[in-house]
Prior knowledge:
By secondary structure, this protein is α/β, with parallel strands linked by helices. It has two domains: 2-120, Rossmann fold (3-Layer(aba) Sandwich); 128-225, putative n-type atp pyrophosphatase, domain 2 (Alpha-Beta Complex). The protein has helices spanning 11-22, 51-58, 73-89, 102-115, 128-137, 164-173; strands spanning 2-6, 26-35, 62-67, 93-95, 118-120, 141-148, 158-159, 185-191, 200-208, 211-220. The protein starts with a strand and ends in a 13-residue tail after the last strand.
Amino acid sequence: MKGVAIISGGKDSIYAFYLMLQQGFSICQWITFIPRIKESYMLHSINVQFVSFQAKLSNVKHKEIFVTGEKEEEVTEILHHLKKTKQKDNFEALVSGAVKSEYQKHRLDFICQELGIAGYAPLWHKSSEKLLLEITEHGFEFLVVHAGEELEKWVGVKITKENVQAFVEDLKKHGCEISGEGGEYETFVVKTPFWKNELKVKGKKVKENNTVKFLIEEISPSHLFQGLARRKI
């Protein structure tokens, strides 16, 4: 089955893509929807301008689409852009990394219904702790790029199978949803089992209100990414 995947650059969306490949799906394109405001209910905004680097390593076509990020209005915009993409590429399924958010899942289901396509969320309602351990056990590594102050020590840190249990215990200690889908933290994948190279990332930590961000400034090996623009969002 031919599908497209909504990819934010984080662990869940890229792991969902990987699982669908394992099931024999043909993912013809990644689509990254970029909200123009940070308060989007549906979409990530941190470091999304670097998803193109991940897509190149994944050898998949990638498209960036800007949307307002306004509640509900962004759903209409996502539907509109996917409808235009479907007319061109005639895909049959939409893949997402939804885990716990009923808000996101219901709206993605609505979009699929309007498009007349199947919706696949292979991580949906998986145990959050088991899922996080599973992701790292399969060879994925990711940076924590956004979190509340209680998790500040993890921001900018690469989570691997060696330190994931300590990360989980800290999430439990602070009463955080372990998947992070409640906004407790956001991630950026730097290593997968299907990439030939790991992404080496440089950046800076920035405090904003009661949160801490890790803003990517440079990605290497740079020779792999000639021609890829790095824009400020």
